[in-house]
Structures are given as structure tokens and as C-alpha cells.
Amino acid sequence: MQPLDEPTEFVEQMYLAVVEESWLWEVPLGVPDGHGGYEHGPWDPAECSRQLVTWFDAGLVELYADPPDDAPRPRDLREWRAWNGRPRVGPAAEVARAVLTDPARWTGASEAGFLRLSLSSAGRGLDAAWT
Length: 131
What we know:
By secondary structure, this protein is α+β, with helices and mostly antiparallel strands. It has helices at 9-19, 45-57, 77-85, 93-100, and strands spanning 31-32, 38-40, 61-65, 115-119. It has one domain (9-119). It is globular, with a radius of gyration of 16 Å.
């Protein structure tokens, strides 16, 4: 039996998906073991949605979009620093929540599926409640 204060494997893997800034379409797939099976997952998309919405509503999670493919890439260190320091562009909170509550939209064929999870500033805090 797992101690009450330890996260389940599912919660741990959802947290890692956020920290690793996974695309939404990747989240339900789980982590492949490299041998045609899964080391963790796959997960029920509705369960993924419930967990991510809980964290979103608690202010721990945000969504953002990658820059467009035709955006010019940095050519030198100064440009890389500017590129990495730019603010992330994400959907408005009500749009982000609507996407998180509808895992049917998390596909590789939709813009919603290519939104990335991210820690919010509150989610980076030492007192963030991830359970």
C-alpha cells in the first residue's frame, strides 16, 4: 500500500509532463519503454484532463504555443538569449481551460494538440501543492 503523502504513478507522470513542457497530444500516450510497450501509461485522456484542469484551476499550470515554423531562428548567442528570454504566448485563460477540459482536441492534427504544458510562476514555488 502506498503512503498517503506520496503521489501515485499517474500524478507523478502528469507532473513530469508539465515540467517537461509536453505537447497536449503526448500526455495520454504515456512513456514508451522502447520495446513496443509502455513503461508508464498509456493514460485515460479524461483522467489526464481532470488532473491538469485541477492544477490549472489552482494556478499551477499554463499553456503556451511554440513559435510559428516560419519564425526566424537565432543565429548567434545574443539572438539565442533574446529568443529564450521572450515571453511565451499562450491562449487566454478561458480558452486554455476549455482546451484542457476537452481531451478530444489533443491530437496531432489540431492546433490545440500542439499547445505545451508549462509550470506557472505559482507552480514553480516551493509551497506549490501538486497532490
